[in-house]
Each structure stands twice: as structure tokens, then as C-alpha cells.
Amino acid sequence: MSPVARSPAREPWPHRERRGVWRFERLLVDDRWERDVRVEVDAGGRVAALETTGTGPGCPRVAGWAVPGVPNVHSHAFQRALAGLAEGRGPDSFWSWREVMYAFLDRLTPDDVEAVAAQLYVEMLKAGFTCVGEFHYLHRAPGGAPYDDPAEMSRRILAAARTAGIGLVHMPAVYEAGGFGGEPLDGSQRRFRMDPEGAARLHETLAGDFSGPGERLAWALHSLRAVPRESLARIGELVGGQREAGGAGGVPVHIHVAEQEQEVRECIARRQARPVNWLLAHAPVHERWCLVHATHIDREEMAAVAGSGAVVGLCPTTEANLGDGLFPLGPFARAGGRFAIGTDSHVSRSPVEELRLLEYGRRLATRSRAGLGSGDGVLAGAGGALLAHAWADGSRALGWAGGEVKIGKRADVVVLEAGHPALAGRAGAAVLDSWVFSGSDNPVRDVMVGGEWVVRGGRHEREEAVARRFGEAVGNLRFP
User: Fold this and answer.
1) CB 421 within 8 A of CB 441
2) What's the confidence (pLDDT) of residue 177?
3) How far apart (Å, rounded) are the C-alpha atoms in residues 389 and 409?
4) Catalytic site residue 344?
């Protein structure tokens, strides 16, 4: 008999604080700070009106520097509970770390995954992320047997997102093989098994669940190692049909690619091409594709990715933790490439920590402080330029109507405390530059997702209960 998991209570975020209209003291609109901006939000959580009158009955004032919420394009939620447990003397490379991760996930139950994901999402919100792309490949029970409900694990992720109040783009991943040669899945990898038809059925099963304005489904292919070449054509058909049904913008597709040098060598040996070149030649890569990591990419591949419109999803703290290498950010940006950020294994859960390390890696590699910023607007500095990519390209990669506060866009807003030591006395471009480059203290005070306040005064309403459940879950894992 297949394992049976407890069905959790799936409570949506309570709508107690929703009022529909606010007056923001200072709000980032396009590339400038606007004062006393009246923002009205409709029932679907989108901006219905944006006026600089700043007045009106029942219009509460929001002090501070208000900016768009940051999209997180790449998350493996269950790995939040592993952070700090794979730093011993054994795992000396990505590949040995992976074995530790496999042993860890053998212990995870659906209850554990939901508890861990909820804790992660609360932490993300408090740091300034307002939506997350969950790259989900933990489909089955330990040993590889399906749950009675094939959507069990996906529904646990949705429950966690609703508990936290974060926007969710859920991407069930196709995972069929254990290597470029089509090796069968073995050991812990059996929990990941999902072919294209199974992923399509899972999408159909979950369609009714993902009905909220801050919830959507997308596609993921785990990697070129895990998806045989014959499956790519079928996936193209499945996603292409959804693209037509979805209208403009289409359905996002995410894939890990070229994360490790060993992966590049194996791809060349098996497929006579570098991974990114092979992918571009065999898949309909377009503006809704996200190439996660792409660490080991050459100049020819950079130009091709930039020309495709695809976004590269960079996860600097995880890439540093695993010793992956440095992405060539400077040349890629100069080629017109688009990039966004994710937190992947969640050794950090902060958008500014990801952006800071991304920029510092570029500076160390080039021995230069010359940044990406240009012009003279609020986004002119290095911090503003990095955030501009995270907002615009992250929203593009997730098919998310966010990244800016504008009529018709989602009301996803992060309010920075103007009096916080990191921002004291700052104005203009220095506000964003100081948020990114002024240390690890967190000036995020309030966070709105789809017109609802989920963090007020630096506190999430459910953080104590979520943390308690997380502590119980990880305490019971007894790992290592």
C-alpha cells in the first residue's frame, strides 16, 4: 500500500488588515521617489489607482521608503532544514554534499516539509521577498512509492505558502534519469520520479487548488542529466499548449543547467555540446524560461541566452556554499542578459544578501568596483541596478505581475524603516544602495502581498506558531 499522509488544514491568510487604500510617504515609482502617493488596491490584490494627491477619507499613512517586493525565482523549500548540517569534513564538493542531502531527505515526511516550508516563507517575507518560485522535485515517499494522493507534497507547499501569506509559483519538476546516459534513478532519487505525462497530470490535479490571485503553476525540468533528450520534445508540446491557453506571456519553464564543471564535461562527452548550447539547440527557450545557475557559461552561450530573452536565475549564497564557481555577471550584463535571484538551498533567505554577494563576486573576479549602475536616477547606483534586475527579470521569469508599483500590477510592497541605522540620513539612490551594501541588519519594517499586510513592524503574525512547529519537525529528524 502506498504511504498515507495526514491532510493538513489549509487556511488562507486572514483578511483582517485589508482596507483597500493607503497613503505612502515615499514610494518608488519607475526610477524616482514619489511623495504622498495614494495607492488603491482592488479585490484581486492589484493596484487599481495610483495618485500623488496623498489624501482621502480612510486613507492610512505608511511612513518609510516603500519599494516593490522582490521575487525569489529559485527555492527548494525542504533544504531550509539542512542549512548548517552539511559543513562537516565529509562533503567536500557539490557531489558529496548531494549525498548528504539525499540521506537527509529520506527522513522527511509531508508534515515535516510543510513545517519547514512555512518557516522558510515567513523568513523570506521578513527579509523582503514577496513571492517565491518553488522548484519542487520531492514528489514521492521514501523508497519511491507514490502517496495515495499524488499531489500530496505539492499541496503541502501550497499550505505552507498560505500559512505565511507569500505569493507562490509552484513548479513540479520532471525528473526521470540519474545521469546523461539515462541511468535509472537509484536510492533517494526515487522520491523524485516524475515523467512529462505525470507532470501534466499533476498540473491538472492541482489546477483547482491554485485558484487564488497569488498562486500559479509553472513547469520545471530538473536538469539535462535528469531529463532525457526524447522527453524535451514532449515537454515542448505540453508547455506550448499551455502557452497558447495562457495568452500573452505564456507559462514559465525553469531548469538547472551548467552548475558544475563536471556536469559540463559529462554533457560534452555524452552530447558533444556544452549544456547551455545543447539546451538552446533542442528546446524552445524563450522569455519565460529561467536557466538556473548557468555558472559555467562561455561568451557564445551568453550571447545566445541574452538573445533568447531567457532569464538566468542566480543563487549566489548557495553557489558559494557549494563551491560551484562565479557566474560571469559583468560580461553577461553587457551582452544584454537578464538575471534574477533565488535562495536555492537557503543558507541565506535575504534578497540583499544574495545581491550583495553576487556583486562582490563580480568585483573579486574583476578586481574592480565599477558596477552595473548608470544614469542619475534612483536606480543609478550599484544597489539600485541590481534590484532593478531582481524586480523586472524575476517577475519575467515567474510570469508574475510584480516588480513595480503600477496600475494593473500586484500590490506587493516592502516598506523600509527610514530611521533604521542602515538608512539614516539617506536619500535618492543612496537608499537602495545602502539597503544592499550597508551590512546585515534588516531595515524591512512592513511587507504587503497582494494588498494584504503580512509583516508589520518587522513581525509576522504567525511567526511564533510557525517557528514552534518548525522546531518540532527538525528536532524529530535527528540528523545527522
Assistant:
1) yes
2) 97
3) 17
4) yes
Is 74 one of the annotated active-site residues of the chain? no
Non-local (6+) Cβ contacts of 68 within 8 A are 28, 391, 402, 403, 404, 405, 412, 413, 414
Q: Which of 74, 112, 203, 344 is catalytic?
A: 344
Half-sphere exposure (Cβ direction) of 159: Cα atoms closer than 13 Å? 19
Q: What is the pLDDT of residue 12?
A: 55
Grid coordinates belonging to 408 = 494593473
Please identify which of the residues 139, 293, 296, 420 carries the catalytic annotation. Answer: 293
Residue partners of 184: CB distance under 8 A and separation at least 6: 177, 178
How far apart are alpha carbons 72 and 240 in whole angstroms?
Answer: 24
pTM (predicted TM-score): 0.94
Q: Report the alpha-carbon distance of residue 453 to residue 414 in Å, rounded.
A: 10
pLDDT at 421: 97
Bridge partners of residue 341, in order along the sequence: 314
| Signed CA dihedral, 347, 461, 19, 63: sign only | negative
Mean pLDDT by 10 residues, the chain (480 residues): 43 54 96 95 95 75 97 97 84 81 88 97 98 97 96 98 98 97 93 96 96 95 94 85 50 96 96 97 94 98 97 98 95 96 97 97 92 82 96 98 97 98 97 95 97 98 98 86
Tell me how far apart the alpha carbons of residues 124 and 349 are, in angstroms, rounded to a whole number: 6
Query: How many CB atoms sit inside 10 A of residue 233's CB?
Result: 13
Measured in degrees and rounded to the nearest 5, phi and psi for residue 338 equal: -105, 140
